[in-house]
Amino acid sequence: MRVFVTGATGFIGSVVVQDLLKAGHSVLGLARSDTGAASLEAAGAEALRGDLEDLESLRSGAAASDGVIHLGFIHDFSRFQEVCEADRRAIEAMGDALAGTDRPLVVTSGTGMGTKTPGQPATEDHYDPNHPNPRAASELAADTVATRGVRVTTVRLPQVHNTEKQGLVTPMIAIAREKGVAAYIGDGLNRWPSVHVLDAAPVYRLALEKGPNRARYHAVAEEGVTARAIAEAIGRGLKIPVVSLSPEEAAGHFGWMGFFAGLDMPASSALTQERLGWRPIQKAGIIEDLDHMRWSEV
Known about the structure:
Blueprint: E1 2-6, H1 13-22, E2 26-31, H2 34-43, E3 46-49, H3 55-63, E4 67-70, H4 80-98, E5 104-110, H5 136-146, E6 151-157, E7 159-161, H6 169-179, E8 182-185, E9 191-196, H7 197-210, E10 215-218, E11 222-226, H8 227-238, E12 242-245, H9 247-254, H10 258-261, H11 270-276, H12 286-291
C-alpha cells in the first residue's frame, strides 16, 4: 500500500514511517522544508512539499495514495482551540480527495475524548460529539468524512515518550526549569496515561490495515501515571524541589499548561489490544524514560 503520512518527520511520525516501510508499505511523507524532504528520502520514503495549512498539498497527497495516516498537528497549545480547528480543516480536505473510494484514513485524537465518567478510564467506544475538549473538532471531522465513502479510523494518543520527549511532560520540564521547582496540583493523584513511541507506531499501521469504518483505538501502555510521580521524576532530573500548588496558584505557575496540569485522564487500551491484536512490548514506562534522560541536553 502507498501511504500518505502527515507529520512524517515528527517525533511519532518518523517512527510510524519506519514501521510502515518495515511492513512492506511505501510512504509518501509531507515535508515542510528541504531538510525534512531529505530526511524522508534518506529513510526510504518519498517526500511531498507542503504543510497542514496548505490544503491543496493535503488533497494532492491523499489522492496519490492508497491510504492516509494523519499525524501532523500544529503543536501550539497556547492556542489550542485554533489549532484544533486547523486540524479539522486538514482532515476534511483529505476526506475530499478520498471520498467515494473506501480508502483508509487514520486520524489522530487524544485519549481524553474517550472519558465518559470522571475518574474512570477512557474507553475506545465512547464518543461524545459535544465533548468540551477542543480536540473534539478532529473526531467530528473524522465522523463527517466517514459518511462519504472513506474508511476512517481514529487513534487516540496519551503522553508518548522515549528518553528525549514525553508529550505534554516536555513543556512541563521547561516550566520547571524556568521556575526552579517541579510542581503538581493538590495531592498530585490525577493521572495521565502514556505509551512508548515504539509501541504507538504499530497501532497506526494496524488501524490502517485492519480497522473498520469509524473504529477508535487507544495507543495506551500505562493506564495512568500520577502527576506527583511525574513531578518527582522531573525534580530528580533537574535537581530542584518538588512542590504542591493550590488550583489558584497553578494558573500563574503553569500558564497555558494549567488547562492540562490538573486533569485526571486515565485511559484503557483493552479493546484496542483485543481488536487489533496489539500489545505494548517496550519495558520502559514514562517514569523510567524520564529517569534515563540526558538532562543536561534537555
